[in-house]
């Protein structure tokens, strides 16, 4: 089977840099009839080339409601080979571990990003098998004497990340406030009109969250709400697609909204889908014609010169939903060094209604903007 090219996903830059996947390999592909098994499917799926566990959330310091934060924690598994290599060495690797972590200080208008990249090998990084409570782990960044770790706690996830050089850390524990939902029928999430461009995808859209967070030398006990996404696939984006705009919104009326727009090089929308989760957990899958997103403002990065959309009007007429989505801090761009210089915008946002009243919160991810944000292919 020919491996499809994957544009503007951060992990692709690592694959390109290492020369992995240049020959046909028998990877598994997303299947609309995939048979799910939980909790085992929270662990890794090494037969698929790409996999990530993705957490974002909004936190407030206990006893100090003026100290408010957003955070991102993402574990990427990048498959090099779909089977364990049969070499007599403890240092062979079938996977790479890439981790991204960020803290946005809403109160002080700052954003700090951290990253790690290691082979899955002794003392470097690993992906465990169910039922080991440790799903994935890795050494911290150079100069940090602490591991990054993702664990299953019996009902949801605990995780921690530390970067002593960047001055950030968090150790958080989550509990579901709402049940797990599939993104797309049976968790089959298309990314193009072709059925072979898809992922297996599910989410926990509301996770009660507590723990500790450190930034700029200060540590806080924090509480709040998180969103968790899990995806695994092999062929993820279409040939003509260069990036995506992705929204996860937790509305104050008890609903959650996930939307994604996949763009072509000329900026036109190539494919779009979404999911609306009702307060009772029922889902409605949304096609492109069910909703609109209009960008009303832009922001230019001083570091990369990329111009990103920076404010949006989101409307689902059939649901009586019309809201404005606004970044809490303008500069929430993540600029990597370890994965070929990839950069993308990943940020905490607020949601307001037509009258300007608070209506929720969420996160937005914007990829493929700016020269050099993806490799030439």
Q: TL;DR?
A:
Helix content is 2%, strand content 53%. It has 377 residues and is mainly beta.
List keywords for this structure.
about 55% strand, ten-stranded antiparallel β-sheet, disordered N terminus, AttH-like fold, 1 helix, about 375 residues, 23 strands, 13-stranded antiparallel β-sheet, mainly beta
Q: Give the terminus-to-terminus CA distance.
A: 19 Å
Mean pLDDT: 90
Q: Do you know the CATH architecture?
A: Beta Barrel
- As for the CATH topology, it is AttH-like fold
Q: How many domain modules?
A: 1
Principal-axes shape call: globular
Q: Main beta sheet, described?
A: 13 strands, antiparallel
Tell me the β content. over 45%
Kindly report the name of the CATH homologous superfamily. Answer: AttH-like domain
Description of the structure:
With 377 residues, this protein is mainly beta. It has one helix and 23 strands. β6 and β7 form a beta hairpin. The N terminus is likely disordered.
Topology:
Layout: H1 10-18, E1 50-61, E2 64-79, E3 95-105, E4 110-119, E5 125-127, E6 134-139, E7 147-152, E8 157-163, E9 168-176, E10 181-182, E11 188-190, E12 198-215, E13 218-233, E14 241-251, E15 256-264, E16 269-277, E17 283-287, E18 292-300, E19 307-316, E20 321-327, E21 333-335, E22 343-352, E23 358-366
Antiparallel strand pairs: 1-2, 1-13, 2-3, 3-4, 5-6, 6-7, 7-8, 8-9, 9-12, 10-12, 11-12, 12-13, 14-15, 14-23, 15-16, 16-17, 18-19, 19-20, 20-22, 21-22, 22-23
């Amino acid at each position: 089977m020919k491996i499809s090219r994957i544009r503007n996903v951060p992990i692709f830059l690592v694959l390109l840099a290492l020369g992995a996947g240049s020959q046909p390999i028998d990877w598994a592909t997303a299947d609309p009839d995939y048979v799910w098994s939980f909790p085992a499917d929270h662990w890794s799926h090494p037969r698929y080339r790409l996999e990530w566990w993705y957490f974002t959330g909004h936190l407030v310091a206990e006893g100090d409601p003026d100290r408010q934060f957003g955070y991102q924690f993402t574990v990427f598994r990048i498959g090099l080979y779909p089977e364990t290599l049969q070499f007599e060495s403890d240092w062979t690797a079938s996977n790479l571990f890439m981790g991204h972590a960020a803290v946005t200080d809403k109160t002080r208008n700052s954003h700090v990003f951290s990253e790690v990249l290691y082979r899955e090998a002794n003392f470097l990084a690993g992906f465990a098998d169910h039922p080991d409570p440790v799903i994935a782990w890795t050494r911290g960044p150079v100069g940090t004497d602490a591991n990054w770790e993702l664990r299953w706690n019996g009902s949801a996830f605990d995780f921690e990340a530390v970067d002593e050089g960047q001055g950030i850390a968090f150790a958080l524990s989550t509990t579901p406030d709402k049940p797990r939902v599939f993104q797309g029928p049976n968790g089959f999430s298309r990314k193009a009109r072709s059925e072979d461009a898809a992922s297996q995808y599910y989410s926990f859209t509301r996770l009660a969250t507590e723990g500790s967070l450190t930034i700029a030398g200060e540590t806080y006990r924090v509480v709040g709400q998180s969103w968790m996404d899990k995806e695994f696939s092999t062929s993820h984006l279409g040939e003509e697609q260069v990036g995506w705009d992705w929204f996860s919104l937790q509305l104050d009326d008890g609903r959650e909204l996930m939307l994604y727009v996949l763009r072509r090089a000329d900026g036109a929308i190539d494919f779009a889908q979404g999911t609306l989760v009702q307060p009772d957990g029922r889902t409605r899958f949304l096609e492109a014609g069910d909703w609109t997103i209009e960008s009303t403002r832009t922001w230019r990065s001083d570091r990369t010169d990329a111009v990103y959309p920076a404010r949006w009007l989101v409307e689902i007429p059939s649901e009586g939903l019309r809201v404005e989505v606004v970044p809490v801090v303008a500069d929430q761009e993540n600029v990597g060094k370890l994965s070929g210089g990839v950069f993308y915008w990943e940020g905490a946002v607020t949601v307001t209604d037509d009258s300007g009243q608070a209506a929720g919160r969420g996160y937005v991810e914007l990829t493929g903007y700016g020269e050099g944000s993806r490799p030439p292919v």
